[in-house]
Amino acid sequence: MKEFNDKVVLITGTGGQVGRVAAQMFALAGAKVLGCDIATEPAEETCRRVNEMGGEMQSLAPLDLANPVEAQRWVDEAIALWGRIDVLFHIAAGIAIAPFNEASIEHWDLTIRNELTIAYVASRAVWPHMLKQKKGVIVCLSSIAGHLELAGFPAVAHGAANAGLQALTRMLAAQGAPHGIRAVSISPGLIANPDALSSPTLDEYGLPIARPLWRHAPLGRPARAAEIVETALFIASDRASYITATDIAVDGGMSGIIWNSKV
């Protein structure tokens, strides 16, 4: 029997690389998946791929998760289709790139909205159903930028938003513990993009401006999306029933080891 048979998993950002891999891996594990994304075509492509491989997935796109009405429409669709929500895996994010001396309030607001507010709104939308079930798991994809500042990555609000996302996850865990609801955040370092087209602006892992950063990972490479999702699969499963209110770094050692690549 597959681990997520008869479980309903809601995944945000399924038009993106990690979201697509997450939809595929949860579906292969037996889950019924409902995705969403602001971008319609890539979200529909993910849905098509999952169903072609024998999984069960529906998707709503375009859908703006920062809008509580839209988030509620998404959750209502899951309840109409399957009658329950077992897991929310929040992946969707968007950031504005600018160093502090050049950033505007619009840079700040966009990043906070697209990395923190959408997680809050999505969690509020699923919360009443998890309370009613007396069971549920919320997994939020954060970043090691919530623990340490990446000096070579000029995103003025990225670290603040992800520190907030980790704190939001702990709050959800505290509020949910008496009701059988767990909440955990996962903090990757850099994630390779194997689908990126070859370009002088990209390194061999399809990452722009990132070579100096991933070389600080003692394991010598960025993560594969599947390595991040494997952690989420474990956290969302009953095998992790005693894990809540914590952040798990999946960053190749970047946040735990001071690494001198010349040594």
UniProtKB/TrEMBL annotation:
Pfam families: adh_short_C2
CDD domains per the UniProt record, alphabetical: SDR_c
GO biological process, alphabetically ordered: fatty acid elongation
InterPro entries for this protein: NAD(P)-bd_dom_sf, SDR_fam
Record-level Gene Ontology MF annotations: oxidoreductase activity, acting on the CH-OH group of donors, NAD or NADP as acceptor
Source species, domain of life: Bacteria
Family the UniProt entry places it in: Belongs to the short-chain dehydrogenases/reductases (SDR) family.
Name of this chain's protein: SDR family oxidoreductase
Lineage start: Bacteria, Pseudomonadati, Pseudomonadota, Gammaproteobacteria, Cellvibrionales
